[in-house]
Amino acid sequence: MLSASGLVLLMTPGLSFFYGGMVNSRSIISTMLQSFVALGIVSLLWYVVGFSLAFGDDVGGIIGNPATFLFFDKVGLAAHNRMGTALPFVLFASFQLKFAIITPALITGSFAERVRFWGYVIFVCLFSLLIYCPLAHMTWHPDGLLFKMGVLDFAGGTVVHISAGFAALAGAIFLGRRQSHLTQKTHTAVNVPYVVLGTGLLWFGWFGFNAGSALESNSLAVLAFINTNLASASAMLAWMLFDLVRGKKASAVGACVAAVVGLVAITPAAGFVSFGSSLFIGVVAAIVCNLAVHWKTKSDLDDTLDVFPCHGVGGIVGMLLTAVFAKQGGLITGQTTLFFHHLLALLLVSAFTFFGSLLLYHFVALFTPLRVTAEEEAMGLDISQHEESVFLQGKNFVR
């Protein structure tokens, strides 16, 4: 579990490369820092009160009692009698922290190239405590509302990806369109090797994300490990073949995005489905998300790095197909209860995350602007927000 926790931690720097390679050359540092800084912010919040809100004594099936594990009180080397019973409780808390870190980092791709740094930092704090922690409690705490409904989320399809996807959708709507989007300039990745590197780190780290969620080194962890790789591989190939059928060339960025889509979709199902089902989930997710990205490019929605079409829609596909292919209770077993519970949970989580996040964006804007000015946007966020640039000549910035 120590190794799994380290692998999941690696995913956030991997995400920073993945996102950083896709934005314009004037906002690479800013975009990467938005992911990276979540390591610091969420780690401290989790220690103070976040873990308690997510896994503390149940309050109405919605959230944990903030006093239960305040400042990691009673979070020590002994195992808990209900959660992570096979490992030190502090290791369970540390593992869960890594999920809390990457979730707000995922959101940043939707409003890349136009968000103020400190406004974003405030949003991360509020989102982590008021959106992520309740979702984690409802889904993974033994007394949580969705857990008691029987909703299956092995490693975060609902808690991480659907929540990040709908928060990203709300953010893209709230912050509005970039000038380049308004003038219909084509968005192209500025550093494809960064994207490939980020994808490799994410794929590698995802083995800890999914297999580690078994919370033991056992056959369940092995099942999740193999399913993770199969879904990502099938999604990558399906995306490229689907592009070929549509008259497009296979691209490195497309292959990387597809691999991540497969990882997203298998996350809720990794420990519940067979190898063949994981291959099917990857293929379906790739095609559906490919179409969602195509639809987005034809709309007025400026989700810069396709967070909602990939993580939001990919998470939805994975959540619903988990209820179809789960070995116990799935539609393939002739039972319908699990599927309808997943539909209900999808509606609840989507509405809670979208409208809750939208409310948080408005709240933050009362204290500090979230959107950079037109001049700062044209200058690029690296210089306007951080006075740094990937291109330097002497003491002068080269733009």
The strand order across the widest sheet is 1-2
Percent in helix: 55-70%
The Cα radius of gyration reads 20 Å
CATH class type: Mainly Alpha
Mean of residue pLDDT? 95
Report the principal-axis shape. globular
Unreliable residue runs = 393-399
How many helical elements?
16
Question: Which CATH architecture would you pick?
Answer: Orthogonal Bundle
Largest sheet: 2 strands, antiparallel
Strand content: under 5%
Number of strands: 4
End-to-end Cα distance: 45 Å
Supply the CATH superfamily name: Ammonium transporter AmtB like domains
How many domains, in number, for the residues? 1
Secondary structural class: mainly alpha
**What is the third-level CATH name, the topology?**
Ammonium transporter fold
Listing every helix as H and every strand as E from the N terminus to the C terminus, the arrangement reads HHHEEHHHHHHHHHHHHHEE
